[in-house]
Specification:
This protein has about 425 residues and is of the alpha+beta class. The protein contains 8 helices and 20 strands. Helix 1 (about 10-25) packs parallel to helix 3 (about 60-70). The longest helix is centred in the N-terminal third of the chain and has 15 residues, at about 10-25. This is DUF2092 domain-containing protein.
């Protein structure tokens, strides 16, 4: 547990209560398969906060963390505004295409425009508006609103549907069984807060930073700051609903300053139970439906959708290969905010160039910085938060750390 400021110290019993509460609260996160590695590392135009700071009873950082952990909101509906600014170059949509291709190549994407694991890569950049709704652990819905179109992911009982109105395509699968890991990337302030609080340890400073109003509700502000040098993370601010303890707004700012890398917040929220019709879905007549079954894909008409036992729906996002120590999984170097994930791809020679790599290899190489050290030579690809070093002998080092930290890690690995 983190060494909070002097007025925040608690005993071991409080630590255990916090961990237990977090596990209970995490069950009700809106389930969406979004991206993968980038989503696991980061946290998104900022959500509008009402003017005026409410006068609320004083709380310590530990008490506020406990309040988040004990939050047991099961019913809600609202609108979330998400803005992501990783500082990536404008690739004219290429970044989303590459991410979608990676998802398909790793078995997490189906090639369907309705597949969540590829479609929601759009949240990697720009500003987006989401509508969310939840009614307990078995009913959630998230809709990505676009100009003249809408993309929705609906979890209703055993069924998980994805529907893209623009292409009239549907993706269908079944939700993981209760008790199984659901590697559900974040989409709401609570999702991001849960991930951030997992990083709270003795490398972290946690304080209460006043109060605010978010989506018309009184909230406390929790401020999380790394104590370590070498990380690209500056600070994380979480606005916590004073009554329910649910995070209403999440803001991550980089150490380099400037605009937030990620800002996600409710602009409207209600804790009334949504109508059952919100979670009802039937594939439109004539829509192309893609089914999943044990990793194999079957395409058919809408009449075949909804049959029981037609696949996991979100398989590939929670496989064992994603866990440290499993075959092909990254190893973690270091501790806390300066931890670095590394994997040996076995691909010698660095980025493909010339006839081997074509224009793409040269283009990707132009986006990175050439570096060298005891490890040899490589290329560093930088964003405002996550940096990645690809060495010429096929090793990859990635983390929310500086370029120098990656080079040092590669040197130490020799």
């Amino acid at each position: 547990m983190a060494p909070y400021e002097s007025d925040d110290a608690v005993g071991a019993a409080g630590d255990e209560e916090t961990r237990s509460g977090r596990r209970r609260a995490a069950r009700y996160a809106v389930p969406v398969a979004v991206i993968g590695v980038a989503a696991a590392t980061i946290g998104l135009v900022p959500a509008l906060a009402d003017s005026g700071d409410p006068d609320l009873p004083k709380v310590t950082a530990q008490q506020l963390i406990n309040k988040i952990a004990k939050s047991d909101v099961q019913q809600l509906s609202g609108t979330v505004k998400i803005s992501t600014d990783l500082g990536l170059p404008d690739l004219g949509g290429l970044e989303s295409g590459l991410a979608s291709g990676m998802a398909r190549g790793s078995g997490t994407g189906s090639g369907s425009a309705a597949d969540p694991s590829s479609r929601l890569t759009e949240l990697l950049s720009g500003t987006h508006t989401l509508r969310v709704a939840a009614d307990g652990p078995d009913r959630q819905k998230l809709s990505l609103l676009e100009q003249g179109a809408e993309y929705s992911v609906i979890h209703n009982g055993k069924d998980v549907w994805g529907y893209d109105s623009k292409s009239d395509q549907v993706s269908h699968g079944t939700a993981p069984a209760a008790g199984k890991d659901r590697a559900e990337p974040p989409a709401t302030p609570k999702d991001f807060a849960d991930q951030a609080l997992k990083a709270v340890d003795d490398t972290t400073s946690v304080t209460v930073d006043g109060t605010a109003q978010v989506a018309g509700r009184d909230a406390y502000k929790l401020l999380i700051k790394p104590r370590q040098s070498g990380t690209t993370v500056g600070a994380i601010s979480i606005a916590v609903d004073a009554r329910t303890g649910m995070p209403l707004k999440f803001t991550l700012t980089p150490k380099s300053g400037g605009a937030a890398v990620l800002d996600a917040g409710f602009t409207q929220v209600s804790f009334a139970r949504p109508a059952a019709s919100v979670f009802a879905f039937t594939p439109p007549k004539g829509a192309k439906v893609t089914e999943r079954k044990d990793g194999a894909l079957k395409e058919g008409a809408g009449k075949d959708a909804g049959k029981p036992g037609l696949g996991k729906g979100l398989e590939g996002m929670d496989g064992a290969k994603g866990r440290e120590g499993a075959e092909g999984a990254p190893k973690v170097i270091g501790k806390g905010w300066t931890s670095i994930a590394t994997v040996d791809t076995g691909a010698k020679g660095g980025l493909p160039t010339g006839a081997k790599g074509g224009d793409l290899g040269g283009f990707l190489g132009s986006l990175g910085d050439k570096v060298s050290g005891k490890f040899g030579k490589g290329t560093v690809f930088s964003t405002r938060l996550v940096n990645v070093l690809m060495t010429d002998d096929g090793k990859v080092y990635a983390g929310a750390v500086t370029k120098d930290a990656l080079v040092k890690a590669a040197d130490a690995g020799k």
